[in-house]
Design goal:
alpha+beta; twelve-stranded mixed sheet; ten-stranded antiparallel sheet; membrane; P-type ion transporter activity
């Protein structure tokens, strides 16, 4: 209905972003509103309820389509596979509200300047702004471009020169007032949701509405006991849910409330510096940063001075990061593109803590407010929690389809009931009650609750193991994981690094390795100076803080760190500069110290950092530290040792982390702030290699072996060196010794050279290194075809991954099928890789320590954070134990919860069908079950089974296959259908046979034989009071068959190995079944008139009771044999699949079959070129992220 729109009636909001939406314009019509109001009254409130469940219907009923410019209501639809609808009213901001403080007219210069979105949003001459608010973000109507645009941040097109010019002196008071009114307050305001709101939202759930309908019906039929039981369970369920939601709301509120009440110093263009509450900040304001330990209340671009920031809230890693000012470059390129590879090194993010702020000439650090409120980095994180991506797991969709089938079955039963009772002359109100009863029987109100019990128990078991979950529904998804990505540092390997040694360079060759374990200090020289000064360490409260690598390097020099005082007067060295000095014991160091003048900080994109230092009483130098290949590329070729590549391979192969150092002398007549990074980082002299040891965590190898034996793929995604990553993959067992590794190197277009991709086989060779025999990586130049093995892994860097994605996209799925090691990956590339795996229909888990992994943790089906920092709130699972042991635990519990959900679904479906069949048979005789009979089945049998059946824990061993991920799978459907047919057959046999018994008579109220009397000598007991409309031999037979069958089915459907603990270990469940069975058999064989009267049963001959037991035993035996020999017989289903030529429809399975038949794959020692602009784009593959087409048996 909302798909046919003319131009101007539809647009895209947040185009190209993760939260992209379609927006449609509508105008409210009075007569439609009146019509809907009348409909709401006549439907007794059902119409508004339908509109609440279906927002699009609300808009279509109340409004008519129009252009977005004229719309007073907009309909929003997400562009993902979920197509979720919502609607918002278009609101107005009136600038006339500012007339008391600002004299504004349509021709005011601030209004007529249409360079900025804020000005374009102001309608003239009435000076008002149209806007909508979607997921806490304001979007204003751009009158010039005719669309809604996000407000609350500086425009992306701004150049660095424009930012310095326009905002470098601050905003005027008028500009501040206008921006404040249009952009809204700078607050991340998460209100604590009132309990009444949470209650209403929960109660209006369709499931509870159905329960309300059922309860009302039961009260009308005087079925009060079970109605009260359902009410009690619903109240407890709603209460627990509301409590959890309330606690989450409070926790999130406390997480952000401190951000909203910070006092900051703001510099105005005319007003000068003044203190201001942070909620009044607007984009473009000039912040003055003074003092230490200041929480950032917004995102801001540093334009002057330098800052050391703790970004633990965003990255999960509390390592101080140095921020540098945005250079004032005359260029037309936007400032983000202009800032080389990583613009974030100039941005102070909201929620992070400025540990240290230093000014340059102006004596204060200054920053321009970039984004405010929910537009900020912290705001984005909070919004991702408030509005999580919906999860489209097939289990839940299949459950809805199955419910629809049950509703269809109930409809047939209703028609049958109407026909039977109308023809028998029953009163109309009784006929309607009986017909509605069929719905509550065929569709059990307790079904959704029963499905979640397994998840609740699994969540509790995970909490005991130190694994916490903020999205319980994802526990079931854990059971489907077949690929897990791991970060390396801090996840597979220890966080801490040990400095193993340093290999100095002399001329074009390496010298002997200097080992720090000997206790001998490193001789004075440029290498020692580089280790002492080329870092981002800071001195805070007398403690040296910073990156662990930098700390280890600095500690190895035994130097000390200090801050220069006001009386520190050396040419070119400012006061309060960081100074490193040799310790008093170091007598052979000829310098007094080294002052660190300027830093070009490290970034993962640039893979290096550089510092400019002044040797006290000596030269001005520049030192560089970073990835060896990167540092060597900036050095004079003659200073790089000829054995550089081979030596690097030796140490990275052994799993060491290798860092290169280089330096150059600088002229002292240049001011340090005038020196561009590009000029400093040229013609360097190579100094040597720093070798650090990063050991595997002891839990890593056993866990990876366990996952491998369970045929769960493991992939490494790291920001570290490729060869180090390959070695760690070998050592950890991710890649076995006998498996080949193929190195993929892809290069983008360069000038006239097209993009290229090469494939080289990595071979292990033996070589002697310093008297010991070790392995190192070597590229084999020639490989014969016979040497190629089927088992191989691809290894590539983030740069190669990017080039393949852009220029060789048809090769990407082929590479991902066997891609195991992905090194030098940026955070964005990690997220992209996870998404690409999902497109291949893998169920992807991501395990990281929180540092740089937030995006990938959010993108994966299951994100597991090993960090307890605030960044972990973006991850569904957080482990208190900082190793990967949590991964198999999570998969085991996920599999157990998934199987439990299936068991409960099958049981609840069959229980409802058993009751349904029994009641319809009794309806044939215009009979039914009594309230107490229903109560016994519903409460004493099914409810207790529903609570205890899910208590089975996870099986301790991971098997090499997953449980089925779908309800609509042949084995499961066959199981349900066969058991329904068996129950139907048993009920019909009992129903027919009882009427053929010689003692059967419609007038009889008892058929119990006197002791030693024959069956023909029956005594009718008129003394026992009975309910004449209910009690009958058919009723008694059907009730016993149905009740005991419910207990037997629970035992048949309760699955144990290979995904859950054996049923006999679920002691409570077994005890419940034994008590229930004993009670039922006692009632069956006990001749207690009062008990029979209470349950509206008739006494039958002992022989007939034996027949009932025989029928039930036969049914149980057949059901058990069918379940074990056919349904749970995996080997049989595999044979059936082969016979019918079934192949998995999952993309990765299709690609595996294609590649297995391709003799030319994988290519070895080949280089392919991309000659055409659109080359490599011949293959299109895309599937919804949260789906898998794989049908498993």
């Amino acid at each position: 209905m909302g798909d046919h729109f003319e131009k101007g009636q539809r647009a895209l909001l947040n185009e190209g972003e993760e939260n992209e939406m379609e927006i449609f314009g509508y105008q409210t019509q009075a007569w439609r509103k009146a019509f809907c109001l009348v409909g709401s009254i006549f439907s007794l409130g059902m119409l508004p309820l339908v509109f609440y469940w279906r927002p699009a219907w609300h808009v279509w009923a109340h409004c008519v389509s129009c252009s977005l410019q004229e719309a007073d209501v907009v309909l929003l639809r997400t562009t993902d596979e979920f197509q979720t609808y919502s609607w918002k009213r278009v609101m107005w901001i009136y600038l006339s509200a500012l007339n008391s403080t600002v004299d504004l007219t349509p021709d005011h210069p601030l209004i007529t300047d249409e360079e900025y979105i804020i000005n374009r949003a102001i309608s003239k001459p009435d000076l008002k702004v149209r806007y909508i608010k979607v997921q806490k973000i304001r979007y204003v109507w751009n009158n010039l471009e005719g669309n809604f645009q996000k407000i609350g941040s500086l425009e992306d097109w701004l150049t660095s020169a424009k930012i310095h010019l326009k905002f470098g002196s601050g905003l005027t008071r008028e500009e501040q007032e206008i921006r404040r009114l249009i952009c809204g307050p700078n607050t991340i305001d998460v209100e604590i949701t009132p309990i009444w709101k949470l209650l209403i939202k929960e109660v209006l759930n369709a499931f509870y509405i159905f329960q309300l309908f059922s309860v009302c019906l039961w009260f009308s039929e005087d079925y009060k006991e079970y109605a009260f039981a359902i009410i009690l369970m619903s109240v407890i369920s709603i209460g627990l849910t509301v409590y959890d939601l309330r606690q989450q709301s409070i926790k999130l509120h406390h997480l952000v409330e401190s951000h909203n009440s910070i006092t900051v110093s703001v510099c105005g263009r005319k007003a000068g510096v003044q203190d201001l509450e942070s909620c009044f900040l607007v984009p473009g304001d000039l912040l003055i940063l003074t003092g230490n330990k200041v929480k950032m209340p917004c995102d801001a671009i540093l334009i002057d001075g330098s800052c050391v920031v703790d970004e633990g809230m965003l990255t999960g890693e509390s390592i101080p990061v140095t921020k540098t000012p945005l250079p004032k470059i005359e260029s037309l390129a936007p400032w983000k593109i202009q800032s080389e590879a990583d613009y974030k090194r100039h941005v102070l993010f909201c929620g992070t803590e400025v540990v240290q702020a230093k000014g340059t000439c102006s004596m204060t650090a200054r920053a321009v407010v970039l984004q405010t409120g929910f537009n900020t980095a912290k705001g984005d994180l909070v919004r991702s929690i408030l509005y999580p991506k919906p999860m489209n797991f097939k289990l839940y969709r299949d459950a809805m389809r199955f419910l629809l089938c049950l509703i269809g079955t109930a409809t047939i039963g209703m028609i049958y009931t109407l026909c039977v009772f109308v023809l028998s002359g029953e009163l109309p109100e009784e006929v309607v009650k009986k017909a509605l009863d069929v719905i509550t029987i065929a569709v059990p109100p307790a079904l959704p609750a029963a499905l979640t019990t397994g998840i609740i128990y699994a969540q509790r078991r995970l909490q005991k193991k130190g694994i916490f979950c903020i999205s319980p529904q994802r526990i079931n998804v854990c059971g489907q994981l077949n690929l897990v990505c791991f970060d390396k540092t801090g996840t597979l390997t220890n966080d801490g690094l040990n400095l193993w040694g340093v290999m100095p360079s002399d001329g074009n060759s390496f010298q002997e390795v200097h080992s720090f374990t000997s206790g001998k200090p490193l001789p004075w020289g440029p290498l020692c100076a580089a280790m002492a000064s080329c870092h981002s360490l800071i001195l805070l409260d007398g403690t040296i803080q910073g990156d662990p690598l930098d700390l280890k390097m600095f500690e190895a020099t035994t130097w000390e760190m200090d801050i220069s005082g006001d009386n520190f007067h050396i040419k070119g060295v400012p006061a309060h500069a960081m100074v490193v000095k040799p310790c008093k014991a170091a007598i052979q160091v000829p310098v007094e110290g080294i002052a660190i003048l300027h830093q070009f900080p490290f970034s993962s994109a640039l893979q290096r950092m550089t510092v400019i230092v002044q040797v006290i009483g000596g030269d001005r130098l520049a030192f560089m530290k970073g990835a060896p290949e990167k540092v060597a590329s900036f050095c004079q070729a003659e200073t790089v040792p000829t054995s550089f590549a081979s030596e690097l391979q030796i140490y990275t192969t052994l799993g060491f982390r290798v860092i290169a150092l280089a330096y150059k002398k600088l002229e002292t007549n240049h001011h340090i702030t005038a020196l561009m990074r590009e000029k400093v980082e040229t013609d360097l002299i190579f100094l040597g290699l720093l070798i650090l040891e990063n050991q595997l965590k002891e839990e890593t190898k056993p866990v990876l072996e366990e996952l491998s034996s369970a045929q769960i793929r493991t992939v490494m995604i790291t920001g570290d060196n490729l060869q180090t990553a390959i070695t760690v993959a070998r050592k950890s067992g991710m890649i076995y010794e006998n498996q080949k590794i193929i190195l993929i190197e892809a290069n983008g277009t360069s000038g006239s050279s097209p993009a290229s991709i090469s494939w080289k086989l990595v071979e292990e060779k033996k070589t002697i290194v310093y008297g010991s025999q070790d392995n190192y990586i070597n590229i084999r130049e020639e490989v014969s075809g016979s040497d190629k093995e089927e088992s191989y892994h691809f290894a590539l860097t983030g740069q190669s991954f990017q080039v393949v994605s852009q220029h060789f996209s048809s090769l990407l799925p082929k590479i991902l099928i066997n891609g195991t090691v992905f090194a030098r990956m940026s955070p964005g590339q990690k997220s992209s890789l996870v998404e690409e795996f999902q497109k291949l229909d893998y169920f992807v888990g991501m395990c990281g320590d929180g540092a740089n992994d937030c995006g990938a943790l959010k993108m994966a089906h299951v994100g597991i954070s090993l960090s307890e920092q605030e960044a972990s709130v973006a991850s569904p699972f957080t482990s208190k134990t900082p190793n990967i042991e949590c991964v198999p635990h999570l998969i085991k519990e996920g599999r157990a919860a998934l199987v439990t959900s299936f068991c409960m679904f099958k049981y609840m479906a069959l229980y409802s069908m058993i009751q349904y069949v029994g009641v319809l048979l009794l309806y044939w005789k215009t009979n039914s079950l009594s309230n107490y009979q229903f109560l016994f089945q519903d409460l004493a049998i099914t409810t207790l089974i529903g609570i205890t059946m899910s208590l089975n824990g996870a099986y301790p061993k991971l098997v090499p296959y997953r449980p089925a991920g779908r309800l609509i799978s042949p084995p499961l459907l066959l199981s349900v259908i066969l058991n329904i047919l068996l129950s139907l057959a048993m009920h019909i046999v009992g129903f027919v046979l009882v009427q053929k018994q010689p003692w059967y008579s419609m007038e009889m109220r008892s058929a119990c034989t006197v002791k030693n009397a024959s069956i023909s000598e029956l005594i009718i007991s008129p003394t026992v009071p009975t309910n004449g409309t209910i009690t009958s031999f058919e009723n008694t037979t059907i009730w016993f068959l149905g009740t005991i069958n419910c207990i037997m089915v629970a035992l048949v459907f309760s699955k144990g190995k290979p995904f859950r603990q054996p049923t006999y270990k679920n002691y409570i469940f077994v005890l419940v079944l034994v008590i229930q069975m004993s009670l039922c058999l006692f009632i069956l064989f006990a001749d207690i008139p009062d008990l029979y009267w209470r349950l509206d049963l008739l006494c039958t001959p002992v022989l007939w009771r034996v027949y009932i037991v025989i029928m039930l035993s036969s049914n149980f035996f057949v059901s058990l044999v069918v379940e074990e020999a056919i349904i749970e017989n995996r080997a049989l289903w595999m044979v059936i699949k082969r016979c019918f030529g079934y192949h998995s429809k999952s993309q990765y399975r299709i690609w595996q079959r294609v590649l297995a038949k391709d003799p030319s794959w994988p290519p070895l020692n080949q280089t392919s070129y991309c000659d055409m602009p659109g080359c490599g784009r011949g293959v299109s593959y895309s599937n919804p992220v949260f789906e898998s087409n794989e049908e498993q048996f």
